[in-house]
Amino acid sequence: MAAEGGAAPAALQPGLVVALQANYCWVLLDRPGPAGATRLLCTRRTRLAKSGQMICVGDRVGVDGIDWGSARGAVAALEPRAGLLERPAVANVSLVVVVVALAEPALDPLQLTRFLITAETTGQPVQLVFSKADLLPAAEVEAWCRRVSDWGYPALAISTHRRQGLEELRQRLSQPGLAVICGPSGVGKTSLLNALCPELGLRVAAVSGRLQRGRHTTRHVELFPLAPGALVADTPGFNRPELPGDPALLPALFPEVRQRLAAASCRFSDCLHQGEPGCVVGCDWERHGWYSTCLAGIRDHVERQERLGTRPAQPGLRRRGDRLEPRLDPQLRQASRRRQRQQAWQESREEEQLGSLSPPDPAG
Ligand SMILES: Nc1nc2c(ncn2[C@@H]2O[C@H](COP(=O)(O)OP(=O)(O)OP(=O)(O)O)[C@@H](O)[C@H]2O)c(=O)[nH]1
Ligand SMILES: [Mg+2]
Ligand SMILES: [Zn+2]
Prior knowledge:
This protein is of the alpha/beta class and 364 residues long. It contains 8 helices and 15 strands.
């Protein structure tokens, strides 16, 4: 690989990060190189690492120092991102597909709400998919679909076993852009990709234990082409999505609130819609209780951070030891992959130990 620095910089080869592997990433080049090479295993230039810029699957990058013989190179530039899903980390997302099973594991509306909140933080369209429709009577499937439609999410009910709903899903995923499939472990995210593209032959595994939880079969985010210009990301399942760090961000992440605020504005500009007299959002919507639970969770988290002195003193600044540093653009912030790995590992340990009966912790 070429040395860093050097004389006149060679033109960068543009490409897309399709997978990460330890300290390397796989880049799919926009234009094939000599002998038709399209995928390069790349390191990351130290100046990118020093600027704190994490590379995510879905990032558009510029590669230099290419050794065509061994199909290796180095990522030297990172293009600005349009939409970032924080966990699982995927950049330039244009559609977030939240998949939850109707059974095995049982559908938990609060957990689903937390996935929807995470999906909404991208600012991109969200498609809800109910998997394993073969495990419930049709009337119950329909009841779930009506219920979430009232939340603002028309859902697709699918079954890979019965090949039900797959063509509708294929159409949705074949739109140009990058669709990311996320949801709890064991709901059948990878199975549905296999059903759409049998040639992928991705690994899936049966759910296990009393609670029929997933076994964290998919370990890495990876992009697959589904149609011209349409990529789909399979992601590792996890069970407890985090909530935003600021209570004021929460209302806009609920379609029910957005819809009510579009029709009339609230009397209070900083209203958190907790049933105050005169609040236009009110409490007469199904998820209001979970909205309040999430809000309380975020507030507890903020209080805990303030007590421990780990809360940023001012927006735009963050505490590092006893220093305050400018907060990086959240789009480019170094997300703590290690923390996410630890959490996934912890979750799989908990599940191995027969799973716990406690509901997801609203404080994240
Ligand atoms: N009954 C039923 N089971 C299904 C269906 N689709 C997938 N499964 C089963 O669900 C289990 C988990 O499937 P996976 O595709 O590995 O689940 P995943 O969401 O990718 O799980 P992680 O990779 O751990 O996040 C497997 O045993 C599948 O056979 C379905 O439509 N109906
Ligand atoms: Mg999987
Ligand atoms: Zn209000």
